[in-house]
Amino acid sequence: MDYLAHLTLNTGIFIILAVSLNLINGICGQFSLGHAGFWAVGAYTGAAYGVFLAPEALPDFINLFISCGIGFVVAALSGLLIGVPCLRLRGDYLAIATLGFGEIIRILIMNMDVVGGPRGFTNIPNWSNLFWVYFWVVITIVFCANLLRGTHGRAIISIREDEIAADSMGIYTFKYKTLAFVIGAGFAGLAGSLFAHAQQFLHPNGFTFMWSVIILLMIILGGLGSITGAIVGAVILTILPEMLRFMGETVSQWRMVIYSILLICLMLWRPSGIFGKHEFNILKFFKKDEEATS
Amino acid sequence: MSENVTYFFYDLFQYLVNGLAQGSIYALIALGYTMVYGIIKLINFAHGEFYMIGAFIGFYCLVSGMPLWMAFPAAMIGAGLVAVLVEKIVYRPIRHAGRIPALITALGTSLLFQYLGQGVIGADPKAFPSAIAEKTYMLGEVIITRTQIIIMVVTFALMVILYWLVNHTKTGKAMRATSFNMNAAELMGINTNKIISFTFFIGAALAGAAGVLVGMYYNTAEPMMGLIPGLKAFIAAVLGGIGIIPGAVIGGLVLGVAENLVVGFWISTYRDAIAFAILILILLIKPAGILGKNRKEKV
Fold first, then answer.
1. Which of A24, A28, A33, A104 to mutate to test the interface with B (most CBs of B within 10 A)?
2. Does any domain span residue B273?
3. B45, part of any domain
4. Best exposed site among A200, A231, B212, B295 by fewest CB in 10 Å?
5. What φ, ψ does residue A230 adopt, rounded to 5°?
6. Based on the domain organization, do B205 and B127 belong to the same domain?
7. Where are the domains of chain A?
8. Cα→Cα distances A34→A49, A85, A105, A201, B64, Å
9. This prediction's pTM
10. Interface pTM (ipTM) of the complex?
11. Do A271 and B90 touch (CB under 8 A)?
């Protein structure tokens, strides 16, 4: 039971990560490969709050709330810091630059002795639980879905469709690209904070470039640009390795080989993923039923 | 005081020599990146893995008792053939799907080789057999090892051959034509698919050579060895101007020297960060690279 609860909790964290990366990569069309970096920023700042600053008197969930807030704000600020210079680049160049920043963040953390450096960050209070993780999952999804319905969201989508056309229609593309990037980074930081308080131990090598690729694989599997796709992708790719574990030690060892073949095959045969750009909305089904019955 | 200054210069020259040896390796890998990018506009993430494959072919050849002068070309040809296969199976179908899908595919291919290598060969580093007797030469206080000299000489020789191949042969002319305008080249009767395969072969062969040289230099080989040098070689290619062959050489040498100076005079743990910092600076200041020309974006 403990194992299942832990797995569900991790799935929730990866849903937040996938949905936030989807906002940058899928919806705004800015190809970022540095998501693990923002995740690390949020995790370390959230954990640092928990270890050094948190008053004992406050109940755990308020501390967690503050920790998540700090994780969000600091990751969003670092997203702003990185996004402003990087978002002038396009396509594959942006991918490489964000990859570079993600690695730089990791190396900086590795050299910070306050948070443990290469020894890892220990004794982080255990505040995360299933309820609060899924509370934030719901907030993230609702926020992103609503963002897309408004003016800002439409502007962000128009950048994905054609940046030059959006620019000539009077949309300040740089501002909206930065907005999407900062929000995406912020939610990754929030996920990091939740992750830190669930794992109670952080190590810089837990946030390597490989994790950026895995989160990317989640949204590609689900369908770039689809929030439901990102959720489904995150669920599949957090549960799949556990399923592989049951199939024996050898299969589990080949997990990354299976992932990379999956990535290549997806790109070759179904680049749009499971959902494409479509959303799967449960509410719509009910509405249709009402219309049919009335 | 003056003694300190002399030692400072000895240190400086030592780091320069180390940097040039390291930079030659980066340059060899960067050449493949830049040639492939020049011809099909693909950032071939898997290029670092061709370097790893070259190192391992060299490793197994040397372990089986093959002399170095045979193992070296064997590694080059082996890495080249793997690259040609990868291009045929993976990159050719994706070529027309746009740059981002191609980039993701390349990423997948890179991961595939890394973890396949870990699964098949094992994740632990292998001790590379010493193929030549190590000898050190002293220039004042500056130490130069035989391997460093071999690295620089081999790199220089391979670059001269590449220069001749690209600029003075018919295949080279076809390569230049294809990178200039693929459709027009095809209309002129050039078999562009063949030329692209050939470019992958040459690029990966150079990377394979770099793999064997690195194996001799550091005496280890492991399946993950391609990741960081691959990324750094890409940075070198961007630094010199991606798609421009002399640019890759300049970028590689500059990066190697810069890195060793940072390690020598500053903090060695920032070694990997400095390469990425250089990349970001160059992308912001002059995205076309040192030798590149700025181009306006068109609709």
1. A104
2. yes
3. yes
4. B295
5. -60, -40
6. yes
7. 2-208
8. 23, 14, 9, 22, 42
9. 0.85
10. 0.79
11. no
